[in-house]
Design goal:
Layout: E1 6-10, H1 14-24, E2 31-35, H2 38-47, E3 49-53, E4 59-63, E5 69-70, H3 73-79, E6 87-90, H4 97-104, E7 114-117, H5 124-129, E8 136-141, E9 146-150, E10 153-156, E11 162-165, H6 168-179, E12 184-187, H7 190-201, H8 204-210, H9 214-218, H10 221-240, H11 257-262, H12 265-271, H13 273-276, H14 285-291, H15 302-312, H16 317-332, H17 340-346
């Protein structure tokens, strides 16, 4: 890349802030602008800095006055008239993606702009392409959990490499990420990567319904059994649709993962050490949504499996009931307080 790219991170939440801190730590490599809520930026100003710590305990800290923060895309454009981002990394909640796309549609005819979707679900890039005629749209996948341990400080809570589409601009972005301290790979099979990630994200609902952090949830057999049933339904529907997801456990075929999850604790806890190597404070994004009283992304997770099943004539009763349970809890406000056994009973699985 012959010039220093301008990167806009659209959605300065946990992931956007973690990514933004790493990119801002390399000002000779790129210029990064964060778009987020003004209320969050006000608390960040009080903290005095934005910082991020990787799983290897490498830390970056950016003083507040060195950050480029805007509460809207309009505010960015006012501050930088005539400037277009080289990359727009979309990390907003999936349910607000259309609003985000509308905000950046002003660059939809610009072939020098690349939009990278990095959200939950599997169809974000397809929907983005409906908004943008000439600028590139690349798929991305963010694999690991991020937690905010104190105001303005974000920590990597689980492992995994970021994936971006194997295109000329995707490879260039992957290089920037790697040099910034974000482990990143490129893939020509983002379709398979994203459908594999969806299988992982099916546990988000169980964490939210039980009100348990992820490690504690995965250490509870009945909660794992709910996840296993959701994965089994998804795999059947994937096969019917000719979808080949990439396994999220190296060297472990996806077909046996439901059996692995259903094992008694004394076996699972020995065999699944990699899956359990997660910060005990880590929670799922849906857990955080319910805790903060925000709408969830359930329609893009279990709801996506139900939708795909309807299209090919295969029922997904477990996923469909999980959608209903989450919506019930969402309507009442706050986290769920169900045990794994209570969820299994509600799903008519015991």
């Amino acid at each position: 890349m012959s010039h220093k790219p301008t990167i806009m991170v659209l959605g300065a939440g946990f992931i956007g802030s973690y990514l933004g801190a790493h990119l801002a730590n390399k000002p000779d490599l790129c210029t990064v602008h964060l778009i987020g809520r003004q209320a969050y930026f006000t608390t960040l100003q009080s903290a005095g800095s934005l910082s991020a710590t990787s799983q290897s305990r490498t830390n970056v800290t950016i003083p507040y006055d060195k950050l480029n923060l805007y509460d809207s895309v309009d505010a960015f454009c006012t501050a930088h008239p005539g400037v277009h981002p080289t990359y727009i990394i979309v990390t907003v909640k999936r349910i607000t993606a259309h609003r985000a796309y509308a905000d950046i549609k002003r660059w939809g005819e610009n072939p020098n702009v690349t939009v990278v979707t990095m959200m939950n679900g599997v169809r974000a890039a397809d929907e983005a392409r409906e908004f943008f005629r000439r600028c590139d749209v690349n798929e991305g996948m963010w694999p690991f959990n991020v937690i905010e341990t104190e105001t303005g400080h974000f920590e990597q809570a689980s492992g995994g490499d970021v994936f971006v589409e194997d295109s000329e601009k995707g490879r260039a972005l992957a290089g920037i990420f790697r040099e910034s301290g974000i482990p990143t790979q490129v893939s020509a099979d983002m379709h398979g990567i994203l459908y594999g990630k969806l299988l992982i994200n099916l546990h988000n609902a169980i964490s939210a319904l039980t009100g348990l952090p992820i490690q504690q949830e995965l250490s509870t057999r009945s909660a794992r059994q709910v996840w296993a049933h959701c994965i089994s339904e998804a795999l059947e529907i994937y096969r019917a649709n000719g979808i080949n997801p990439v396994s999220f456990l190296p060297h472990v075929p996806l077909s046996i993962i439901p059996y692995l999850l259903s094992l008694p604790n004394f076996l699972f806890l020995r065999l699944a050490t990699r899956m359990l190597s997660i910060d005990p404070r880590a929670t799922s994004s849906m857990y955080e949504d319910l805790r903060k009283g925000r709408p969830t992304e359930i329609e893009y997770l279990q709801g996506e499996i139900v939708r795909m099943g309807h299209e090919c004539g295969i029922a997904a009763p477990v996923c469909e009931r999980v959608v209903g349970l989450v919506k019930d809890v969402e309507g009442k406000g706050g986290l769920g307080k169900l045990t794994g056994e209570m969820i299994l009973d509600a799903l008519e699985l015991i």
